[in-house]
Amino acid sequence: MTTPPRIDLNSDLGEGAGPDAELMPLITSANIACGAHAGDTATMEATVALARRHGVAVGAHPGFADPAHFGRVEQTLPADKLRQLVHDQIAALGRLGPLRHVKPHGALYNLAARDPAAAAAVADAVWAADPGLTLFALAGSELVRAGRARGLRVAEEVFADRTYQRDGGLTPRSRPEALITDEAVAVAQVLRMVHAGVVRATDGTEVAVTADTVCLHGDGPRALALARRLRAALEQAGVEVRTFGA
């Protein structure tokens, strides 16, 4: 008997930018901002409580300490400072209860995806915080390799509402084609990644990907509508939606 495909649905929450309460019942993993790029203690507490109420896995979403730019401007930090930055944010959220995973945010995520040294620093920070945590990382990236080399469980992440380049990286947000705004196109992209393990890059190249978890950005104007449509489409297509590793 063939095992049906399964996928985790995650969303970046606690950032003060999206309909967290409405999104939470539709996802299986919540990446909660830890006070650096967004969030504060009260927001973290409320978002964790919301996730627990809906049985959603709680994870830390550390980013560069730059709320003015929402953590989307890359910073150059020595490895020890980068490790400390990530570790401190995991610890801040961890004080509110057990965590299941860690997913870097924004510019930190993209840096760790392509830069081996940054990837190693992030993986080291996660391991030091709790070696039982799962690391969410861009599929096929340096962070996937660093996490596994460090002995962490890694969930390879794909995106519903972002376009891809031929090297498997995400199209930079500075480019007009970076975001997918058509819900039907976004849903079709996810279904193909889950079922066939490929995504079409902006130049037409077919790129192989592993899809363990799908990111649904919570801060877009149509985030909730896309989440509802994608969840329904996955279930209709026979894909089991469940927390990664559960």
CATH architectural arrangement: Alpha-Beta Barrel
Helix/strand order: EHEHEHEHHEHEHEEEHE
Largest pleated sheet: 7 strands, parallel, barrel
Major sheet strand order: 1-2-3-4-5-6-9
Structural class designation: alpha/beta
> Could you say which overall geometry the principal axes of the C-alpha atoms support?
globular
Low-confidence stretches: none
Average pLDDT works out at 96
Strand content: 15-25%
Distance between the termini: 21 Å
Please specify the SSE layout and strand pairing:
Elements: E1 6-13, H1 20-23, E2 29-33, H2 41-53, E3 57-61, H3 79-94, E4 101-102, H4 106-114, H5 116-129, E5 134-138, H6 142-149, E6 153-159, H7 183-196, E7 198-200, E8 206-208, E9 213-215, H8 223-236, E10 240-241
Parallel strand pairs: 1-2, 1-9, 1-10, 2-3, 3-4, 4-5, 5-6, 6-9
Antiparallel strand pairs: 7-8
Structure in words:
The chain is an alpha/beta fold and 246 residues long. It has a single domain (6-241), classed as TIM Barrel (Alpha-Beta Barrel), CATH 3.20.20. It is 37% helix and 17% strand. It has eight helices and ten strands. The protein has helices at residues 20-23, 41-53, 79-94, 106-114, 116-129, 142-149, 183-196, 223-236, and strands at 6-13, 29-33, 57-61, 101-102, 134-138, 153-159, 198-200, 206-208, 213-215, 240-241. The strands form two sheets. Strands 1-2-3-4-5-6-9 form a seven-stranded parallel β-barrel, surrounded by five helices. Helix 3 (79-94) runs parallel beside helix 5 (116-129), helix 5 (116-129) packs across helix 6 (142-149) and helix 7 (183-196) crosses helix 8 (223-236). The longest helix is centred in the middle third of the chain and has 16 residues, at 79-94. The protein is globular, with a radius of gyration of 17 Å. The protein starts with 5 loop residues before the first strand and ends in a 5-residue tail after the last strand.
